[in-house]
Amino acid sequence: MSSNQTSPTTPAVLRFFGVDNSADKRGALYIFVLLAALLVTPIVVGNDFVYHVFITICLFAGLSTAWNIVGGYAGQLSLGHAMYYGIGAYTGMILVNAGITPWIGMFVGAAVSAVVAALIAYPCFRLKGPFYALASIAFLEVFHVLAIEMKWLTGGATGKMIPLQVGWEWMIFQDRLPSLLIAFGMLCFVLAIAQVIRHRRMGFYLIATRERESAAKAAGIPTVKVRIYAAAMSGALVSMLGTFHAMYLTFIEPDSAFDLIFSIQIVLFALVGGIGTVFGPLLGAILLVPITEISRGLLGASALGLHGFVYGVILMLVVVFMPDGVVSLLPKRARKALDPEQFDDTTGQPIGDTELDAPQLDPIQTKARPPLGDEVLKVDDLVKNFGGLKVTQHVNISLRQGEVLGIIGPNGAGKTTLFNMLSGFLEADSGSVVVMGPDGKPHTPKGVADFVSLGVGRTFQIVQPFAAMTVEENIMVGAFYHHPDVDSARRVAGEIATELGLGRFLHEEAKNLPIGGLKRLEVARVMAMRPRILLLDEVMAGINPSDLVEAIRLIKAIRDTGVSIIAIEHVMRAIMDLSDRVIVINSGAVISEGDPESVVRDEAVIEAYLGKEAGNAEA
Amino acid sequence: MDLIFTNLVNGLMLGALYAIVSVGLTLVFGIVKVINFAHGEFLMVAMFLVFFATAYFGVHPYVTLVVVLPLIFGLGMLVQRVLIEPLQDSDEHIMIFATVGLSIAMINLMLMLFGPDIYSTPSSGLRTVVDMGPAMFLTGQLNILIAAIALVGGIHLFLTRTQLGRAIRATGQNRAAAQLMGINVSWVYMVTFGIGVSCVGLAAVLIAPLYPTSPEVGQYFVLLSFVVVVMGGLGSISGALLAAMIIGIVDAFAGFYLGANVKDLVVFGIFLLVLIFRPQGLFGGARNMSHVS
Amino acid sequence: MLKLNNVTAGYGSTTILHGISLDVNEGEIVTIVGGNGAGKSTTLRTISSLINPTSGSIEFEGRDITKMAAHKVVELGITMVPEARQLFPEMTVLENLQMGSFTKVARPRYKEKLDEVLTLFPRVAERLSQEAQSLSGGEQQMVAIARGMMSCPKLMLFDEPSLGLAPIVVTQVFDVVKKIAASGTTVLIVEQNVFQTLQIADRGYVIENGEISMNGPAQELMGNDHIRKAYLGI
């Protein structure tokens, strides 16, 4: 959305939904027309079967949109979402039998589902792709068996009728119109929530966590919490639709309420429409539901297995020929309007290295260097073993404000392990890491979040951007730490990008940057968090010698703002030029320490690392 | 006491069956890096093949192996070629959908062709009860146990002692490097997938005389073999064998004492505990951790 | 021996090589130098057919190998030692070497080749039964080179053999490359370590933005002002 001018006349309501420029408004209009058609068509046609088809569309579009919060934004492929549908359906039924209206039952079910989803999400958040899918299937099976076994509550395997009390209070009607209104209203509700999540900080956090969890953590994102939130929200919404659908069908049984195939259908619509996009699931349901409902209506029981077969074949065809869903087939402009964040590249073409080669990055401005301040970081006798392997042996480090400390050593010496302990990704076996807080008091942080809150920022040796995001959005993920609001995070990201010479690539998809640009982006994301201590893990590796000069100036400029820096490097030129002090690590232990010139002359260092010809080494 | 012993023997034989099914699944995962959600459907299709072959030719079910194995092997190669290979470089979730789609399509195709009915392959004497003192079992079950041991041993030898087997392992560990060695990796993938599903071809021949055949029979076995594969450590064949035996024994005892439904609860409970607390499997070290971040 | 005519290639919709032409004669050490993302590795990956060119042609010993499958290219005698070693981590060092002589051409000469590489790399010989992943980075690089030699190549492609290695190991790697060339194998080497590479090479190509911007004898390139400034930092 940022590629268009923000229009000041956009009403606050629209802005709340992330609509704030002309392209977004056009998108909002498409969606409005589409939704209106969903509501008006059956009313105009007035046929019961048409009503039924449109109610089913609204239901599945809603389910699929809600699934997408977990499956798309958070990237956790749940094939067990029927369990929340079932919980909603059963809770509604049980409460109706106890004389409580489904309007209340719906929220009770949602609360139960949210708790269940959170309880499942917590232990499962680490599982990736197929394993999350398998776990979700297993949980679904567990609920399926429970629904069968707990006869006193659920009616057992044969299922249970819902008492036919007609009227709004019981959500059961003679006509189809009220059911359509409810289904449609719920669909709009779910879409609104999905849209808001996507375009607020939460959406950025979920996608960042999906794309690269370690970097998301380092950016201060509570990765576990956001995933639990997404799971709970998604489960609750699915559950509410489940309650409605139970009232619509007036009968539920374990085999259909906790059905794996039903779960897969929910996912299918999202996949066909476009996973991770806000309105893809809606499109998927609009396209597919009529086909299957009509074929079922026409052929009836004579075609046992037909619609399942069609679904299976569609699934395979879609993944082979259209893996990004129908959304990807829409004309560029419509796509952009429907989901600006997703398709924010201004050129529309992936940019090759040619256009973006490092020398074209804007030059870095430098200021005068302030004197060194007090000690900001103290590492005392740090020890870490992996099994029998001593990766860190009694390391002591002290860092002053505004100082640059270089760390060199052969591969496998334990440099990155040390960084992991200095940023909370690993816990030391013994010894301590003390960080001076902004309050001037010493702290001993535990865990990534603690380190981040004390202003310790880090980059990673292997750079990967949050690939689905633009350069600006990548930096925003860091900026959110101090600026929860989207607009101010965007402003900060713009400023940082300009400072680091990435200004003109703001709206490019980050994955199209060349390596030099990616390294800068990595630094930019950390700088957006305003770190006080910056840990740089080989940010010079693999960049052009001519770009190296720029990179060194960049780091000096950061240093001169008062940030303390520890840099792991193999590029000796950078180490010699940048470092106030150098530490040499070999086999986990510090073997030399001092100013750069004396360290490279140290016999032990030459032996272990530099080699005899180090004098003219250009590495 | 006799009951316990009978259950134990039953469990081992059940475990042997799970092992045959799981070894194929874990092999395909370890090499092709695909969790084949349609693995059970290959079993189902193979069981139908056994049924029709015995029904029409009137031969002993075991004889149908000569027809079933090549057909299933070929079907596996075809699926790898047509469905899996084009998606090799796509996101993980794409591959899940592909095999889930395949699974649904296969089940429902069979439903359309043969309906939801149960087909019983003639038992041809394989249901004869062998009474060995405290334990009782069927001859067919004993054969499954023998076949499982032979299969696991055979696959292990194949992978470590033959050049093709080593090429398969190399491809699994580093696809690009394997290509640079002159290995035709798309052929290796096809062969691996073929071997993987041939394991269920073998399983089908062994169990068709003992279990009824229906379009949904594969789902039951495949869920259990997922449990086994994860417990054994993904890609680990010896791990799968051990885990299969454990699950078989749990299955037999829980089924006997707690009933069929609650038995599922126990098995899936174990599965979830393993997934969450020992995602690398029960027996492995920190290896094969590619599935957790 | 090897000839690239106006080769265009890339990944997906991204074109990285915009019409590369180069040739390598038998017995030479030729190097391609250039910055990151310039297309050096892509050139090697195109030659070894890990990616296919979108236009242009590649000839090896007079045969057109433009569209040939990667495993066929190896059989013809082109072997690449890939970037970042790419060993088979859970196989032993010996098994890694066995995979090196997988092709029909190399298999009969397995014993002879094994003796040869083990003499060249005594450190590798000591570790034959260890899993490849338990080796240090430098040792892994040596195994990767040894594995490449096992396929009896006529032309060896090296993709950034010095990457991620400590300077002392880098020097050892370059020594080995020199020895391989001296024994009659043609070498095409891609490096960011421009200085050391030009020292051992006969000829060099400079690649910039996916195009060859300069080529000539290595000594000449090393004296070139533009190269000294852009790549040697002098």
What does this entry look like structurally?
- The complex is a heterotrimer of chains A (about 625), B (about 290) and C (about 230).
- Chain A has helices spanning about 10-15, 20-45, 50-75, 80-95, 100-125, 130-150, 150-155, 175-200, 200-210, 215-220, 225-250, 255, 260-275, 280-300, 305-320, 330-340, 355, 415-420, 450-455, 470-480, 485-500, 515-525, 545-560, 570-580, 595-600, 605-610; strands spanning about 160, 250, 375-385, 390-400, 405-410, 430-435, 440-445, 455-460, 535, 565-570, 580-585, 590-595.
- By secondary structure, chain A is α/β, with parallel strands linked by helices.
- Chain A folds into 2 domains: about 25-340, ABC transporter involved in vitamin B12 uptake, BtuC; about 365-465 and about 530-615, P-loop containing nucleotide triphosphate hydrolases (Rossmann fold, 3-Layer(aba) Sandwich), CATH 3.40.50.300.
- In chain A, the strands form 3 sheets. Chain A has a 6-stranded mixed β-sheet with strand order 8-9-10-5-11-12, with helices on both faces.
- In chain A, α9 (about 200-210) crosses α11 and α13 (about 260-275) crosses α14 (about 280-300).
- Chain B is mainly α and about 290 residues long.
- Chain B has a domain at about 1-115 and about 135-215.
- The model of chain B is unreliable at about 285-293 (pLDDT under 50).
- In chain B, strands 1-2 form a two-stranded antiparallel ribbon.
- The longest helix of chain B has about 30 residues, at about 1-30.
- Chain C is an alpha/beta fold and about 230 residues long.
- Helix content of chain C is about 35%, strand content about 25%.
- In chain C, the strands form 2 sheets. Chain C has a 6-stranded mixed β-sheet with strand order 6-7-8-3-9-10, sandwiched between helices. A 4-stranded antiparallel β-sheet of chain C has the order 2-1-4-5, with helices on one face.
- In chain C, α3 (about 95-100) runs parallel beside α6.
- The mean pLDDT of chain C is about 90.
- Chain A: It is found in: Cell inner membrane.
- Chain A: InterPro entries: AAA+_ATPase, ABC_AA/LPS_Transport, ABC_transp_permease, ABC_transporter-like_ATP-bd, BCA_ABC_TP_C, LivM-like, P-loop_NTPase.
- Chain A: Its main location: membrane.
- Chain A: GO terms for molecular function: ATP binding; ATP hydrolysis activity; L-isoleucine transmembrane transporter activity; L-phenylalanine transmembrane transporter activity; L-valine transmembrane transporter activity.
- Chain A: Pfam families: ABC_tran, BCA_ABC_TP_C, BPD_transp_2.
- Chain C: Keywords: Amino-acid transport, ATP-binding, Nucleotide-binding, Transport.
